Backbone:
């Protein structure tokens, strides 16, 4: 049953606070004409129904109306609109069709259907408290309940990570090769000194190797060339040192060993630029991956 409400606090259609004249304050003993149209599962007729008119209707709203009629002691009948519509306003004629048009014209007392609330409709008719809320939603595949220890690899495909690893190794080999070919590296300093040193021991050794057509592979045993580079000792950019340098750059850190040759530094700057771009892409893709 309903509790009594102070009518002075109720605002009726049109902004008035006084109770409209000729409107019943209770439904007991009244016979109501209810606007309805078929729309499963809210209201629909039984096929080939020969029973009473009211019993031919089934669905959510007929069940609600039947319960209200039992508790509040009123009778009713369903009135279907001629066009079977819910009700839309014709802009040219400024007339409503469907169930709303029938109620405005007085053919029905109320509408008992899943009628959506809109501003345009609220300016012409009153709505009761909604018995159902609905909205538009999307269904997407949820995340797995299992924890992924390699979630940081999710922004890129596996083949991309393989290419990055291959580029990391190739870049280390190139840096090691450039260090050996450049006269600025320790290896290049020794070879360059062996070929240009003017001391007697170097000259004799160089002539002997040229006559025997022997490559300068044992240059590390020449003491005068080691003494030549003793004043400025430089760490050799070996393959392992190049691997560590590139790995440190990949995670945003530096290393003690740095290439001395301009070509080696240019290669290193290229690798650092790639690492910066990679970090930017990973950050953006990870943010998008976890916020979609």
Residues:
């Amino acid at each position: 049953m309903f509790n009594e409400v102070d009518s002075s606090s109720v605002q009726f259609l049109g902004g008035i606070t006084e109770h409209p004249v000729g409107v019943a304050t209770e439904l007991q003993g009244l016979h109501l004409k209810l606007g309805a149209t078929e729309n499963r599962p809210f209201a629909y007729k039984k096929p080939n129904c020969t029973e009473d008119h009211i019993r031919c209707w089934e669905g959510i709203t007929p069940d609600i109306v039947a319960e209200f009629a039992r508790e509040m002691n009123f009778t009713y009948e369903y009135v279907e609109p001629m066009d079977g519509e819910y009700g839309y306003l014709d802009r040219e004629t400024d007339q409503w069709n469907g169930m709303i048009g029938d109620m405005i014209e007085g053919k029905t007392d109320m509408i008992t259907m899943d009628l959506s609330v809109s501003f345009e409709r609220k300016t012409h008719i009153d709505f009761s408290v909604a018995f159902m809320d609905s909205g538009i939603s999307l269904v997407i595949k949820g995340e797995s309940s299992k924890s992924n220890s390699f979630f940081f690899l999710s922004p890129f495909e596996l083949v991309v990570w393989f290419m990055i690893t291959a580029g990391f190794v190739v870049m280390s080999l190139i840096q090691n090769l450039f260090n050996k070919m450049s006269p600025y590296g320790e290896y290049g300093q020794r070879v360059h000194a062996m070929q240009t040193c003017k001391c007697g021991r170097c000259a004799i050794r160089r002539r002997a190797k040229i006559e025997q057509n022997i490559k300068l592979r044992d240059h590390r045993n020449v003491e005068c060339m080691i003494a030549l580079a003793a004043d400025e000792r430089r760490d050799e950019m070996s393959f392992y040192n190049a691997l560590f340098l590139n790995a440190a750059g990949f995670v945003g850190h530096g290393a003690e060993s740095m290439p001395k040759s301009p070509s080696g530094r240019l290669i290193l700057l290229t690798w650092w630029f790639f690492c910066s771009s990679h970090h930017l892409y990973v950050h953006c893709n990870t943010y998008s991956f976890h916020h979609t």
Summary: The first strand starts at residue 31 and ends at 35. The CA atoms of residues 84 and 218 lie 101 Å apart.
